[in-house]
Design brief:
Length: 141
């Protein structure tokens, strides 16, 4: 079975110019942990909620907040995203994708076509659901 049978086809993307403040707000509203970064309809990076947390000041929004804490919120996605991305195509076998996740210590794989355009995202949860429940995500397209 291929990843196209279980991947999430609905993908939330952001642009490299969006700010850390915007990312913080997005992650506060969604249930997933990764956003794909897209520019000119092409995948250019990935950013996680952990990337956002690593760049936020613990003083932001508190009485101890300083100008430097507020300035961090102006960092852009380009400043914090990972641009060394491991991708797969929709025809990749689920077992091969599983190995990529495990061997590279990552939790999701962007699924792209031959032009590096985003067609989905595969997470470790998608694979686990498939193996445990036999669930595919083809209904979310």
């Amino acid at each position: 079975m291929n990843v196209s049978d279980i991947m999430s086809k609905t993908v939330h993307t952001v642009s490299p110019e969006e700010t850390l403040a915007e990312l913080r707000n997005i992650f506060a509203e969604v249930h997933y942990h990764h956003l794909l970064v897209e520019q000119d309809d092409v995948l250019v990076g990935i950013v996680s909620d952990r990337d956002v947390l690593a760049h936020l000041s613990p003083f932001a929004g508190t009485e101890q907040e300083r100008a430097c804490d507020r300035n961090l919120l102006e960092l852009t996605v380009r400043d914090i995203m990972s641009d060394s991305i491991i991708t797969i195509d929709p025809d990749t076998l689920i077992d091969c994708a599983s190995i990529l996740l495990l061997e590279n210590h990552i939790s999701c794989l962007p699924v792209v076509d031959e032009s590096n355009r985003i067609v989905g995202i595969l997470s470790w949860k998608d694979i686990l659901q498939y193996h445990v429940y036999g669930i595919d995500n083809t209904l979310d397209s």
